[in-house]
# Entry
Amino acid sequence: MMMRTLVLLTLLAMALLIPGPGQAQDSISMQQLTGNERAALAPTQKMIDFGRTAAETNCASCHGLDGISTEAGKPHLAGQRSVYTYRVLKAFQANVRRDEYHNDFLNDKAMLATAVYYSSLEPVQLAARDTATVQNESGAQAEEDPFYDIREVMRRCVKCHGETGNASGRGMPSLVGQDPEYFVNAMMGYVDGSRSHSLMKKLVGNLDEETIRRMGLFYAVQEPHKSEVQGDGNADTGRRLSEACESCHGGNGNASNPSMPTLAGQDAKYFIKAMQHYKDGKRQHPKMFEAVKALSEQEMIDLATYYAAEQPRRRDVRAPLKSTEWIARCERCHGIDGNSRDPRFPMLAGQDQTYLAKALKAYASGERKHSAMHAMSDSLSAMDIERISAFFASQQPKTVVYMSVPCAGETENADPDLDF
Ligand code: HEC
Ligand code: HEC
Ligand code: HEC
Ligand code: HEC
# Structure
């Protein structure tokens, strides 16, 4: 038994009790421990027994008396950190965490005892096979690539836009140096008809919004180059004319506004075509119509020549993290391998994979409210969620035993009514 349950000894030190800088104050789980919660970290047998009785009547029908879920999507409670579980129960009661399953509420004492009881149980034991698979795969290159899931569909773009979206000089637009917001608008323009190009329309038509957004992110984080082909107009005249464009397209054609396209390094032939289309109304945009309506053919060529030779700059867009980089961030709060040492933070190790993925989606959508977890989950792709959930679900969970040491400045003592 002892061989299978690894016991961590953690000193309950001051660090645990004072929220660090940057930790959200609005969340239930990051508040300081109360006197009762501290008492629950070193529970008496009487408290555990009381919790077992309460769990048997109120929780076992769904969570089992052993706290091990047998149904995908339902969380394991065995070994879960007691303060976290207790706070979750209070959040259910206060309707802060909403769900349809927890409508009969225990009193505070019984909630604390039930949390302590489940926390004292041996967590789920994973078969060696479960822990092996994901770890092996995570070593592979593909598992590390944050764009792995869109590579296949992006192969369709390579023929015309190149591997990285840099202008290839055949009248094809450069896609790098653009903000993902402009990219998405441009793509949607082909669907809603404000831009006409039957092939682009067909290509975009069968992509979902999330895929389009991620493609935009992919091109935005590539290193942009100047167009390989020089235009055949007068760059100096183009530079002078470009003063009228600067307020929107930025100095040297490097726009900073996310809805404005960067013109630096743009392919000249594509540039001229775009200008003509704004002028003759094939591409609908009132502001651009205003900007081009008085320009002559030659002036468009001069502008195209000037911009094509300018160096495009990467937008200020953060490259997405690899799964392993995400996991390292999660471990700062949830402990190494998701074995949380802080009783306020849930253990993720060995948790049901479907449940973990569901929880992350709920934080991202705001259905489950928590500012720190919203910030962590908001930019995860569906593939990230799958990988990260699989990783934590396949880590062997370990229980933690806390040894309470009195801290200087402790103000709150356990409630005498707790009586365990
Ligand atoms: C009717 C079935 C049912 C009963 C009874 C029930 N639960 Fe649950 N419980 C669930 C389901 C389903 C979920 C998953 C909800 C979700 O997906 O967010 C859950 C989630 C939880 C969670 C959240 C786990 C986490 O990691 O955040 C805790 C804690 C919990 N239950 C504790 C209890 C306790 C303690 C009792 C008894 C007082 C109890 N539940 C009674 C069905 C039940
Ligand atoms: C057969 C060649 C071809 C393929 C394949 C192709 N494109 Fe295009 N793409 C073009 C052409 C030509 C234009 C310019 C159309 C126009 O004048 O509006 C364009 C325009 C665009 C634009 C607008 C650029 C801007 O600056 O406004 C985006 C964005 C784009 N393509 C993305 C993609 C993506 C993503 C894929 C792959 C799913 C793709 N394209 C596949 C030829 C292609
Ligand atoms: C008031 C703001 C504004 C001004 C001024 C302006 N533009 Fe634009 N421009 C835009 C916007 C917004 C778009 C994107 C429109 C769309 O989605 O079709 C755009 C698009 C373009 C495009 C197409 C880019 C692409 O990748 O398809 C070109 C080329 C362009 N502008 C050139 C110019 C030039 C040259 C001038 C100066 C003569 C100019 N613009 C002045 C706002 C402006
Ligand atoms: C700043 C600390 C912090 C970081 C970093 C963090 N979490 Fe959390 N996490 C929390 C807290 C606190 C909770 C409990 C929130 C609540 O009460 O709902 C939580 C809850 C969760 C839950 C719900 C657990 C359950 O049993 O219902 C999951 C899943 C989760 N985090 C996954 C992650 C993942 C994956 C990452 C990394 C991408 C991560 N967390 C990063 C603090 C953090």
